[in-house]
Amino acid sequence: MLKLALIGYGSMGKEIHKFAQSKGYEITNIFEMDNPISLKGNFDFDVAIDFSYPEAVINNVNTIADLGKNIVIGTTGWYDKIQIVKNIAEQMSIGVIYASNFALGSNLFIRIVDLASKIINKFDSFDIFINEIHHKNKKDSPSGTALFLADLILKNIERKKTILNEPINKRISPEQLHIASLRGGSIIGIHNIFIDSEAETIELTHRAKNRLAFAEGALLAANWIIDKKGFYNFSELIDDIIK
To answer: How distant, in Å, are the alpha carbons of 145, 163, 218 from that of 35?
Structure first.
């Protein structure tokens, strides 16, 4: 059974801790802002799971690489530095797997949206847009999943050219893909894709009921990455399962 370290001990860190222990995993280390991971000490873990802060990801990956360990990154909001993390993984020969969302259902939802947007590309009468809702304490907006879905739609639908994700008070261009974000309450996460024409509406929805789905996915990723080197997205794990 894997030995795990947790980087970040907020809601997700606590959920992973509880679920991992219920499955017999040993949590050997918990790193937080007042106890950051460092090179000092002999750490007895196989894989680290990072659900911390976007600004901490590069430092965390560097430290994990220096320790010769592998890492699962569930933190979002750092994707402008993906190439840096990829370079670290490849140069230091460690395994890194990341996702904007580790819930299995969410990743299957992404596959469905991918197929749907390819189909909608052929039917100009349909517009497409995104709505996402999360709890009031979520640090990033739009969500990493919403941005990933938007990039996927832009790739598949030729008439959509740019993402619009700020509040607006005017008509948008048909070339813009609008993401609307709402924050409030304790909602774990809802992502809606609306495909709309003058006569019909198709709605695709993924609704996270609780954080257990993310914890299950993070542990699945930890078990998958343990014997690998290089930089991976969670979608590659899904490919490996369904091939």
So the answer is: 29, 38, 22
Catalytic residue among 18, 81, 86, 134: 134
Residue 134 C-beta-side C-alpha neighbours within 13 Å:
16
Nearest alpha carbon to residue 129 among 200, 166, 180, 172:
180
- Could you confirm whether 228 is annotated as catalytic? no
Fold adopted by 3-102+212-242: Rossmann fold (3.40.50)
**pLDDT of 208-228, one tens digit each?**
998 899 999 999 999 999 999
The token pair at 22 is 């219920």
Length of the chain: 243
Write down the domain spans for the chain: 3-102+212-242, 104-208
Q: Note if 134 is an active site residue.
A: yes
State the pLDDT confidence band at 113, using cuts at 50, 70 and 90: very high
> Regarding the domain delimited by 104-208, which CATH topology (the fold level of the hierarchy) does it fall under?
Dihydrodipicolinate Reductase; domain 2 (3.30.360)
In 3D space, the residue among 160, 149, 147, 73 whose CA is nearest the CA of residue 111 turns out to be 149
Task: List CB contacts of 166: < 8 A, sequence separation 6 or more.
Answer: none
Query: 114's torsion region: left (phi>0), alpha (psi -120 to 50) or beta?
Result: alpha
- Contact indicator for 76, 34 with CB cutoff of 8 Å: no
From the list 17, 69, 138, 206, the catalytic residue is: 138
**pLDDT tens sequence across 66-99:** 999 999 999 988 999 999 999 999 999 999 999 9
pTM: 0.79
Terminal Cα distance for the chain, rounded: 26
| pLDDT value for 40 | 84
